[in-house]
Amino acid sequence: MSDQNEQDLLTTPLDSLHRELGAKMVPFAGYAMPVQYPAGILKEHLHTRTGASLFDVSHMGQAFLMGVGSDLGAIEAFETLVPGDYQAMAEGKTRYTVLLNDQGGIMDDLMATRIAGGLYLVVNAACKDQDFAHIEAGTKGKADLQILTDRALLALQGPKAGDVLAKLAPETAEMKFMNFREVQIGTISCFVTRSGYTGEDGFEISVPSDQAEAFARLLLDQPDVEPAGLGSRDSLRLEAGLCLYGHDITTDTTPVEGDIKWVVNKRRREEGGFPGADVILNQLENGTERLRVGILPEGRAPAREGTEIQDMDGNTIGAVTSGGFGPSVGGPIAMGYVKTAFAAEDTTVNLIVRGKPLAAKVVKMPFTSKSYKT
Amino acid sequence: MSIKYTNDHEWISIDGDTATVGVTAYALEQLGDLVFVEVPEAGRAVAKGDEAAVVESVKAASEVYAPVSGEVVEGNAAIADDPAAVSGDPSGAGWFFKIKLSDMSELDGLMDEDAYKAFVDGLD
pTM of the prediction? Predict the structure, then answer.
């Protein structure tokens, strides 16, 4: 995407606000997106861990999947594509899940919320066209997919996010992690989910595109709120141990290999009935040859995506899938896949950075403690 | 003493047959906050264009190439210990390494300050 001409890029409803705020814009998933503002990635990252940061994530795909005839139709049809138990969920609850292919590989990860009449979906920007085509085809006749092209998505993240939003919409104070609510703020109709991608408490807020800028300005006017870009979003999610689709989980990795086996809910584990169920249920029973793990380099050199992981005898045992510097950790952090024999906590490994082995060890994630409101 | 520039955004300050090499303020601004710096050890022989040092920001790693051939006299240990110090004084205390030049004529192809300014202006 990096060689894409700027004029070919799509823009979000906050494009002119980003430029006014002095953002450095970069191409991402076909959109011009702010990678950072003048404060820089380090400050934006650290502010998110102490205050509240506003991220534009309007490039992500939003849709309603509404039951035809009955609500349950949409839920049952959706469950044929994912391993999550949505039948057991109450309206207003959100659950993270994955779209699976027939080999049990992950086509995308997404958030799905039960709403009256069906589901509200939020999928990754880079996958949204193929996700929506796949969901539409897989639920045909039972559900109607309505892609929400006229809504922006903003993430308000950080320990102060709860107080900030409660001031504007008092009813959000009682929302817990992975709760969804439709909220009116002034004239703006918001879909609020208490969730995020930073490891902090916070919200993802869907608003009509034509009111997005006014809403963003309202949030930025609140004390403690600063804008933050995709650069810090990435370092925050890495510290939180959260997967980046296309890197840490792909069509070649299953939820079991990716160490997110909890997305296969109990009833689905017993009943199957999702793509690749034979592969995944077998892996749940018998384990896998490799696993995604957290990796803490001992020195100061970051190990980037693609870095080879070796055992202490020099044998290749895996590769880094996300790696960089954790501003809150104050040093390099990474995650990657290793052969299962090396996946135990505290296993020492070598990372081959610029041809030299650097000592590292396998660690439990997250690298920083999460502060969700539960 | 004269200062020259490369189109890889390095500055080279020449004093006799010794060159001090650093990264320009323009390049540092493009990189963002530095979180890791690796400098070459004294005694290492480098050829023009070799990877001599490494700078990493939160997002990405970049190489600093040797702008001239010669032997490394010193790497700046202070910036390896405190990468953030580079941004504070890129053309002074934020130097990366010193090279004893083996071929003075390699300096001829480098830009002077005016040429580098024009080069940077052309990039924006």
Answer: 0.94
